[in-house]
């Protein structure tokens, strides 16, 4: 199972990279309104580096937790900006969470989302309402935890995760930034979506698509 799980996570990171690359210009435009206009480029470089390192692995002999550990190191090496340490911490936390099971059940998928959010919070010392990526990640985690508590199936859980993340990202338009470069703008940051929250939605959507695909493969043709 862990062999299949490692390959699925590798496909997940590939999907994330493709999606981030496709949205790179939009993310940088969002960042241009309240930051340095480089968020899309930074995220694209980070995930391209992750995929380059994962391509070197023998996934038949790699544990899922190791995939996240490799992703953490690769992202941090490629991205020196604040986003690098944040996502490196997220991936390290996910690796630790998976070591308990090395499986990708819906409960484990919820644990990945929860662990990634914990890593970002610990590293960035932020919270929901600061107009950061946490405004997408925190509600996504709440949805994941609630879905796990009611033993929801994977597709139902991911629908609720993505819906919560999208709503959270959209809510940043009405926030004044309290952290990051955007905080320097004060009231002028109003009306703009946080680019980190926007990229978090892209990441979570790619995760959803990967895990939904896994569910369809398990159920087979109808």
TrEMBL record:
One of its GO terms (cellular component) is cytosol. GO terms for biological process: glycerol catabolic process. Keywords: Kinase, Transferase. It holds the Pfam family Dak2. One of its GO terms (molecular function) is glycerone kinase activity. The keyword Ubl conjugation does not apply. InterPro entries: DhaK_L_YcgS, DhaL_dom, DhaL_dom_sf, Dihydroxyacetone_Kinase. Gene3D superfamilies: 1.25.40.340. Residues 7-209 form the DhaL domain. SUPFAM superfamilies: DhaL-like (SSF101473). SMART domains: Dak2. NCBIfam families: dha_L_ycgS. This is Dihydroxyacetone kinase, C-terminal domain.
């Amino acid at each position: 199972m862990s062999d299949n799980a490692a390959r699925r996570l590798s496909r997940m990171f590939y999907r994330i990279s493709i999606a981030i690359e496709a949205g790179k210009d939009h993310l940088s435009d969002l960042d241009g309104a309240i930051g340095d206009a480089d968020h899309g480029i930074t995220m694209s470089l980070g995930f391209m580096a992750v995929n380059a390192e994962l391509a070197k692995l023998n996934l038949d002999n790699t544990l899922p937790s190791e995939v996240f550990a490799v992703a953490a190191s690769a992202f941090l090496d490629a991205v020196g900006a604040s986003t690098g340490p944040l996502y490196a911490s997220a991936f390290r936390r996910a690796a630790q969470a998976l070591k308990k099971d090395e499986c990708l059940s819906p409960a484990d998928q919820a644990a990945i989302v929860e662990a990634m959010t914990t890593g970002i919070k610990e590293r960035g010392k932020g919270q929901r309402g600061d107009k950061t990526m946490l405004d997408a990640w925190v509600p996504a985690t709440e949805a994941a935890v609630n879905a796990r508590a009611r033993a929801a199936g994977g597709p139902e859980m991911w629908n609720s995760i993505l819906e919560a993340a999208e709503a959270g990202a959209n809510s940043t338009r009405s926030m004044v930034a309290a952290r990051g470069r955007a905080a320097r703008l004060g009231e002028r940051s109003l009306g703009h979506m946080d680019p980190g929250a926007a990229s978090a939605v892209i990441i979570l959507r790619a995760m959803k698509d990967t895990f939904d695909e896994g569910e369809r493969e398990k159920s087979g043709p109808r």
